[in-house]
Each structure stands twice: as C-alpha cells, then as structure tokens.
Specification:
570 residues; lipopolysaccharide transport protein A fold; mainly beta; 40 strands; 8% helix
C-alpha cells in the first residue's frame, strides 16, 4: 500500500469520524426533548429555544380542535419533561392554557398526561366556557376517561347571576353537573342556599341540596334536609320536613313548592302556618301569598286562635294575617273552648275579623246551629262581637236550655268570661218549659230578658204585653189545673234546678185557674206557641244536620220583625 493511498484514506477516515461525532451530538440533544408535542400530531420542541430560555410557542396542527373528549395544550411559557423521571406526563409552567372542545382551562402550572387526556393543574385554576360559565379553584384534577374535573380549595362556579362556593367540587363535564360533598353554598340574586351536599346543573339551572339545608332570604330562613331548587325560576321544591321562619309566621311542611321570587307557596300533607299571634292555619293543601299576607286551605282546613280560645274549620278556609280576617265554608264550624264546656257552631259560612278597636267579630250564616251541653240554638244568621260579648241571633232564632225553649225575632245572648250571663229577646218573645206529654209552662211578651247563674236560669223579666200560662205542681208532684194571667210587666224568680219560686205581675194583672179535666187542648197553648224540638241539635256532630223542619221555618217571613243584622249593616 502506497503512502499516497494511506494519506488519502487517512484523511477520508478522519472526515467520516468527525461526521459521526456531529451526528451523535445532534441525536443526543434531540433525545432530551423526544416526545415533546404541543398538540396532537405536532413536531418536537425547538430545543434551541429552550436552551436560550425563550418563550415557547406551540405548533398548532390542522387537527379538529373540537374532538370529543380530547384535551389540547394551547399554550405555556415553559415545558419540561424527562422520560426517565416522568414518562407519563409533561410539566408545564407559566400561563398554561388547555382546550377541550368549547371549554378553556387555565392555571399557573400543570402536569399534562397527553395520552390519557388528563391534567393536574395548580395555582389560579380557571375553567371558562363562553361568557356564561366560569369555574375557579386552587387545584384541578381532570380525568379524561370519565371527563370529571375535581376542583379543590377556594372553589367558585359562576353561571351568570349564580355563584357556587365550596372547598371541594367535582364537575362532570360530560353531563355538565357540578357537586360538592363537604359543605358548600349557592348564591343567586335573591337567595343563599347552603348544605353538606349539593349539586348544580348550569344547563337546566337545577340544584339539589342534602343534609342541613338552609335557604336564606331577606324575609325568611328555610331549613330542611332535602331541597330541590331552580336558580332561574327561583322555585324551591320541598320534598322533606321543612320549617320556614320569618318575622310574621313560621311554616311547617313536608311537601310542596315555594316561589321565592313571587313569594307564593303551595304546600301539601297537612302543612301548618303559625302566625305571630299564635294563630295556626292548616289543611290538606295550603296556598300562601307572603306579599299579600294571606293563606288558603283546602281539605280539612283548621284555623286555631289560642288568644280567643277558638278553632275555625271547614273543607275550605282563608286567613289574612295582615288584616286578621278569616272565613271557613263547606261544612264550616267554629269551636270555643275557653271553658270545660266547648261551644260547637255551624253555618254555611263563618267569618271572623277585627273591628276598629282590634276586637274580634264573628259572623255565621245561613242555617246556623250550635251546641253546648247546657245551651243549644238555631237561627238563620248570627254575629258575635267581642266588644260587648253578645251573641246576636237573627231570623227565627230558637234557644234551648234543659227543658226550656225561648224564641223570637231576635235573640241576644250575653257571655261573661265565656259563660252565659243573660239572654234578651228584644222583639216578639216567647218562652216555654216542657213538663211532660202535651203540657208546657209558657210566657210571652213584647220584650223578654232571662238571667243565668251557674248555667241555670234564675230570673225572667217580661217588658210589655206579658201573658202567662202555668201548670202549678201539687204536693203529690201532679198537675191538675192550669193558670193564665195577663199584665204589662212580669218578673219570675227560679230556684236551683229551675223550680219556680215566685212570679210578680203588674199593674192590675188579670187571670184565672181552670181544672185540666175541664180544659180543651187548644186552651193549653198561648197564641204563637211553638215547640221546635225537631230542630234542636242533639250533640256536637248534629250541628251539621239541617232538618227539613228548620228549612221550612227559615223560609217563612217573620211577623213584626225588626231589621236583620245584615240590614243594619247596610
């Protein structure tokens, strides 16, 4: 081999060796950044840019950026990766920006699992969809397989005027549903709702709250364990035991809905409204309007007024807490229970309200019937005014007490501490006492007033045109004559157990005594005598029975009658 040949081959070998070294150096540098891709299908990162600490700008391929379930890295100031240390993820720092279809995600730094479409994001985390939905947190863990974003610490989800606050929130991007489970709250333009567990759907605006739920409104606070709420309609759907506390009342319910925007509610399952004066309204279904201050109850309505010891009930009822007005109808009934002996009263419609002195007035009409152990009565209409404690009965009123009956064109019954004090018949009065069989003691007159003591009549006064028909009892407790007497005025005193003690008539009374065996049947009754036993309520439930005899009586015009209570009001 010649020197020329050796020299030529030596030079050539040196050049080849140098070329190999350069190639190896380039491959070594590139190997440090192998696998770095800014987006699906992109080229490797410009290594020189990293070595010079210059800003990294990704190469954006012509790929569809709206691919379902695909996360794209849009931007980062710095990208670091080492297959030996972190083969599954890339480390991103500074102004990091991701994109998943129409959703953008921002953070200060992140681990990007490109193959799994997953992200661990840290610092100033923000998720943004259009101009309507924004989510903020300190930390985000996003799993691409189930499209679940787990946000932690100082979490806020903002959807227009609705903001969700929580320390931990899981956000299902597939169903667009966010839920917290360690306590949180949702705030909109009118209400603040908090609970242990809660979930919110931005698309439907539906929210659900569980455990220690509290809805705070400027007018009331609602507490429950389960609540469904729509942030658009502001309607709360009540599905569990709930209390709603305000300055005006407390509501207890188990089922219903509450429109917090219009301040209207429809409540079911015997819901209860307790007013500030301890008035209680309940029913199978209750409608309540807070702005207008009234409630309507349908089905077994009951209004309890503990201040006045009364209960008003019926199949339908109404109560206005602002005006203190109430009424019941459809089998309406009022009960007064201030004493051991409860008064039961029925009318087609019963109304109550407060007069100008804030004293209660109760009106019942038509077909009024009431029962008390020691007093029963019927009439077409009646009114009770607390100001004078007088129960006024109009149009064919009839009262019974024991074996005694009184009736006239009007009857006024005065109560003293819920006990009958006296009864007055101001026009066309008639009183009768049944002795047995066809025999009755009877008194009639223009005006009549009966006084009671210990629930028994002790004195009777007649003012004008007094007429008496009495059957005095003989020593052997038999009756063998009747006595009639007439005068202008009469006073009768009675002993306990209703025995007549003395009768005084004046001036210049006239009368006669007739043996029963010489009397004719028609002579045993005064003009205008009627005995209405068929109309008499027999027990508390009998007040709802309207016998035909009562309908017939109420249909008759009154003679020499004074104006009715309704006419007086006109």
């Amino acid at each position: 081999m010649t020197d020329k040949y050796r020299k030529h081959t030596g030079i050539k070998g040196h050049k080849v060796f140098s070329g190999i070294l350069c190639l190896l150096a380039i491959l070594f540098i590139n190997s440090l950044f192998t696998g770095y891709a800014w987006a699906e299908g992109s080229s490797t990162v410009d290594s020189l840019a990293i070595l010079k600490n210059k800003e990294l700008k990704p190469h954006i391929p012509e790929a569809d950026r709206y691919q379902k379930n695909k996360v794209f890295l849009e931007y980062a100031d710095e990208l670091v990766a080492d297959e030996n240390i972190s083969p599954d993820y890339q480390v991103l720092r500074g102004n990091v920006k991701f994109r998943k279809q129409g959703m953008y995600m921002y953070c200060d730094s992140a681990y990007f699992y490109d193959t799994a479409n997953s992200i661990d994001a840290f610092g100033n985390v923000k998720m943004e969809q259009g101009d309507t939905l924004f989510v903020y947190a300190d930390v985000l863990y996003y799993n691409g397989d189930d499209e679940l974003a787990r946000l932690r610490k100082n979490v806020r989800m903002i959807n227009r005027d609705v903001t969700l606050y929580a320390d931990s929130l899981d956000y299902d991007l597939k169903d667009n549903l966010g839920y917290y489970f360690e306590g949180g709250k949702i705030v909109d333009s009118q209400n603040e709702l908090s609970s242990v567990y809660g979930q919110y759907e931005p698309d439907t605006k539906n929210a659900e709250f569980l455990f220690d739920v509290e809805l705070v409104n400027e007018k009331y606070i609602m507490k429950t364990d389960t609540l469904h709420y729509n942030t658009d309609s502001k309607i709360a759907d009540i599905v569990g035991y709930t209390t709603i506390v305000s300055d005006s009342n407390i509501i207890y319910t188990r089922k219903g809905w509450y429109d917090t925007s219009k301040e209207k509610a429809t409540l079911y399952n015997r819901s209860l409204i307790v007013g500030k004066n301890n008035e209680k309204l309940t029913g199978d279904t209750v409608f309540y309007d807070r702005n207008e201050g009234y409630g309507e109850a349908f089905g077994r309505m009951e209004l309890t007024d503990s201040v006045h010891s009364t209960i008003l009930d019926g199949d339908y009822g109404y109560h206005n807490e602002k005006l203190s007005r109430s009424f019941a109808t459809k089998k309406a009934r009022a009960r007064e229970f201030s004493k051991d002996d409860t008064l039961y009263l029925h009318g087609d419609t019963i109304r109550t309200y407060l007069d100008e002195d804030s004293l209660r007035v109760m009106i019942a009409s038509p077909k009024v019937r009431f029962y008390r152990v020691n007093l029963q009565g019927v009439c077409d209409s009646m009114v009770f005014e607390e100001s004078d404690s007088i129960l006024k009965m109009y149009k064919h009123p009839v009262l019974w007490s024991g074996e005694r009956q009184i009736f006239g064109n009007e009857v006024h019954v005065h109560f003293n501490d819920s006990t009958v004090d006296y009864a007055e018949l101001p026009n066309s009065a008639f009183a009768a006492e049944h002795l047995g069989e066809i025999y009755y003691n009877q008194i009639s007159g223009r005006k009549m007033k009966a006084y009671f003591e210990n629930q028994e009549m002790r004195k009777l006064e007649v003012d004008g045109n007094a007429v008496v028909l009495m059957l005095p009892m003989e020593n052997d407790s038999t009756y063998n004559k009747y006595v009639t007497s007439e005068g202008s005025y009469l006073t009768m005193w009675l002993k306990p157990k209703q025995e007549v003690e003395k009768i005084n008539m004046w001036p210049n009374p006239t009368g006669k005594a007739v043996p029963l065996y010489l009397s004719k049947k028609r002579e045993l009754y005064l003009t205008g005598f009627q005995w209405h036993e068929a109309l008499r309520p027999k027990d508390p439930e009998d007040i709802f029975r309207i016998p035909q005899e009562m309908k017939d009586l109420l249909s008759k015009p009154e003679e020499n009658t004074r104006r009715t209570w309704k006419d007086k009001k006109k």
